[in-house]
Design goal:
Elements: H1 6-11, E1 48-58, E2 61-76, E3 79-93, E4 96-101, E5 105-113, E6 125-133, E7 148-157, E8 162-173, E9 180-192, E10 197-207, E11 216-228, E12 231-240, E13 247-257
Antiparallel strand pairs: 1-2, 1-13, 2-3, 3-4, 3-5, 5-6, 6-7, 7-8, 8-9, 9-10, 10-11, 11-12, 12-13
Length: about 260
């Protein structure tokens, strides 16, 4: 799926959807392991690295991705720069195999509205994220063009432990005659069982999944666990909705805030 949306499905995903302010003593909040990204910004002066591995079977292909690194560095309480998708992949399909690094992406996240969750004037937390890939990956996975994408990020706390989240996404994929525009949306819910352990469920769709292809719809479920305020482990498992585009994936990760 790197021809179009494998990188989006496997690597950009994710958020531990809970509120976070800019206090470095507050527990780490990540943009993995979900497909959706959170509105939260890492604390100024405390860069964050998120990483993981994912095993995916999709449409007769098998892909294992390693690293999946996201580097986040805040320039203010509302703005961070991002280096995304530092990932090594092993891909096999119908006797063909390839391995190497995907094209990385660079960009930023801006939280432009804080959420208000009590009183009469309640409102969601809002942010935007703009990225572009850089065509420097290994030859089997490289797209010889910059591929920009944008996300509208939405989060809303219904109570102290429950949060709703959603992303609206548009991006361009491919190069030259193979280039196409992809829309995507996701929505989900997270629940904090206790200060360390959280659960989430989300569903998302890619329209189209590949050039001139059908819509791909997926769902995943998983958990996050805080080893301490700066370190988190995560796990997720998911599957496709419809038989024609069916697939499944399983992944785990480790994130650390400096």
């Amino acid at each position: 799926m790197r021809s179009g949306s494998l990188g989006v499905l496997l690597l950009v995903g994710v958020s531990v959807c809970r509120a976070q302010d800019s206090d470095p003593n507050y527990p780490i909040s990540t943009d993995r392991p979900t497909f959706s990204d959170a509105t939260t910004i890492v604390p100024v002066g405390h860069p964050q690295i998120e990483s993981g591995v994912t095993d995916t079977y999709l449409q007769g292909t098998h892909t294992v991705t390693y690293g999946e690194i996201i580097y986040r560095q805040a320039l203010s309480d509302e703005f961070e720069i991002r280096l995304v998708n530092l990932t090594y992949a092993q891909y096999t399909a119908s006797g063909y195999s390839a391995n190497g690094f995907f094209d990385p992406s660079i960009g930023f996240k801006w939280k432009f509205q804080d959420g208000v969750y009590t009183g009469k004037n309640r409102r969601p937390e809002l942010g935007i994220e703009l990225l572009t890939s850089v065509p420097i990956g290994a030859a089997p996975f490289r797209t010889n063009a910059f591929q920009p994408s944008g996300r509208l990020l939405v989060q809303y706390n219904t109570d102290a432990n429950t949060q709703l989240f959603a992303n609206l996404i548009v991006g361009t994929f491919g190069a030259d005659s193979n280039a196409f525009v992809q829309f995507a949306f996701s929505e989900g819910v997270s629940y904090q069982l206790n200060p360390r352990f959280g659960l989430f469920f989300e569903a998302y769709s890619l329209l189209p999944e590949v050039q001139a292809g059908p819509t791909g719809s997926y769902a995943d479920v998983g958990f996050t666990y805080l080893l301490n305020k700066r370190t988190q482990v995560d796990f997720r498992v998911g599957s496709g909705f419809d038989e024609r585009r069916d697939g499944n994936f399983i992944g785990a990760g480790l994130s650390y805030r400096y």
